[in-house]
Amino acid sequence: MKARVHVMLKNGVLDPQGEAVRHALGAMGFDKVEGVRQGKVIDLELSDDATEADVRDMCEKLLANTVIESYEIELA
Amino acid sequence: MKARVHVMLKNGVLDPQGEAVRHALGAMGFDKVEGVRQGKVIDLELSDDATEADVRDMCEKLLANTVIESYEIELA
C-alpha cells in the first residue's frame, strides 16, 4: 500500500522558503507568479495491513508539526 | 490559476531525508513502514493567463534540479 502525505505551513504562518522562490522566479522574469507556498511531500510504502489511521498517527507524532503545519493524506 | 508542483528525487538517487524519516518511524514503533521518499511540494498562485508551459519552464530553470530530481505538474 502506498500513501502520500502533504505537509504545508498553515495559512498565516510566514513561509520564507516560498517567499524566496517567489522572489527568484520574479527576478528570472516569471511575472505571472502571484504567490508561492512550499511544503513537503512524503511518499510512504506501507505493508498491506496498514490503515489510514496509522498514517494519521505518523503525521501527528512525527511528520507534521501541527502547531504550524497542516497535513493531507492520500492513499493509493 | 493555481498549480501544484511535486519535486522528488529520481529513483536510484539516495534520499537521506526519507531514510531518516523511515528510521525515526521504525524507532517509534511504526513497523508497517517499508520505505519513505521525501520531496518538495510547491503551490503556485498564477495570473489567469499563465499556462502549463510557463510552469514547466519554471521547473526546468529553478524549481527542480533535473539531473537528480523529477517533477510533476498539476493544474487546478
UniProtKB/TrEMBL annotation, chains A, B:
Keyword Oxidoreductase applies: no
Any one Pfam family match given in the protein's UniProt record, by short name: PurS
GO molecular function: ATP binding; phosphoribosylformylglycinamidine synthase activity
InterPro entries: PurS (IPR003850), PurS-like_sf (IPR036604)
Keywords: ATP-binding, Cytoplasm, Ligase, Nucleotide-binding, Purine biosynthesis
Top enzyme class: ligase
GO terms of biological process kind: 'de novo' IMP biosynthetic process
Gene Ontology, cellular component aspect: cytoplasm
Functional pathway: Purine metabolism; IMP biosynthesis via de novo pathway; 5-amino-1-(5-phospho-D-ribosyl)imidazole from N(2)-formyl-N(1)-(5-phospho-D-ribosyl)glycinamide: step 1/2
Compartments (UniProt record): Cytoplasm
Keyword presence, ATP-binding: yes
Protein origin, superkingdom: Bacteria
EC number(s) recorded for this UniProt protein: 6.3.5.3
Reaction(s) the record says it catalyses: N(2)-formyl-N(1)-(5-phospho-beta-D-ribosyl)glycinamide + L-glutamine + ATP + H2O = 2-formamido-N(1)-(5-O-phospho-beta-D-ribosyl)acetamidine + L-glutamate + ADP + phosphate + H(+)
Coiled-coil boundaries: none
Chain's role: Part of the phosphoribosylformylglycinamidine synthase complex involved in the purines biosynthetic pathway. Catalyzes the ATP-dependent conversion of formylglycinamide ribonucleotide (FGAR) and glutamine to yield formylglycinamidine ribonucleotide (FGAM) and glutamate. The FGAM synthase complex is composed of three subunits. PurQ produces an ammonia molecule by converting glutamine to glutamate. PurL transfers the ammonia molecule to FGAR to form FGAM in an ATP-dependent manner.
Quaternary data: Part of the FGAM synthase complex composed of 1 PurL, 1 PurQ and 2 PurS subunits.
Family from the record: Belongs to the PurS family.
Protein name in the entry: Phosphoribosylformylglycinamidine synthase subunit PurS
Organism field: Phaeobacter gallaeciensis
